[in-house]
Amino acid sequence: MPVVQPRVSIVIPVRNEARNLEVVLPRLPAAHQVVLVDGHSVDGSVEVARRCLPGIETVDQTRMGKGNALACGFARVTGDIVIMFDADGSADPGEIPRFVAALTDGADFAKGSRFRPGGGSEDITALRRAGNAALNMVTNRLMRTRFTDLCYGYNAFWTRILPVLDLPAVDRPDRQWGDGFEVETLINCRIAAAGLRIAEVPSFERDRIHGESNLDTFRDGMRVLRTILAEHRRSKRTTPAAMRARAELEAVTE
What we know:
Radius of gyration: 17 Å
Strand order of the largest sheet: 3-2-1-4-7-5-8
CATH superfamily: Spore Coat Polysaccharide Biosynthesis Protein SpsA, Chain A
Strand content: 15-25%
Number of strands: 9
Distance between the termini: 21 Å
Largest sheet: 7 strands, mixed
Structural class: alpha/beta
Shape: globular
CATH class: Alpha Beta
CATH topology: Spore Coat Polysaccharide Biosynthesis Protein SpsA, Chain A
Number of domains: 1
């Protein structure tokens, strides 16, 4: 029988990244779907995206923050695999097949790592590296994981595990926990708490092409620490939503 290739959906959160999109979008590999989630850009990011990649799907995020943008993008996904991809040029599109291979080889979640052999970074500072190591240590101890790069957003997963993530509903008007940069740590912790299979994928982080990052080392580091502690507490109790999500996933994979 012929091997059926999974359909890949690439979700790209964007806020004023028009100049970077001109470089990044033409380099994406062929995919079932590319979803650009616009965070109220004022530089013509959406228009540039449509010009550079005809057929791209665009959606406006409903609140503020990267977490809400990702949730809005996930809600539009129609493929079998979701790729979380940044628009600033730091993620290498050529690595996407590596993430897909990790999933088709049996993982539920493919976690990018700059600290696996073959990975690396042009962007991370000594301070951020030390902070990342400390946060890894806390997470691995509390969540019983073996992450080498907790604070890295280049990840992929099977669409079927979306209910396990239990992200905030996108149609609520008020800001929700998980709407900000903490979303990546939140996802990592919930994947681990659900006992899903995680494979780390070596990844090389490049410098942002244009513009400046919105990341604040101390502020966002404290937010990540709060997320780890909150998710550890959450993992100690089994919520009805978590029970339903786990049961549905087991039914699908049987």
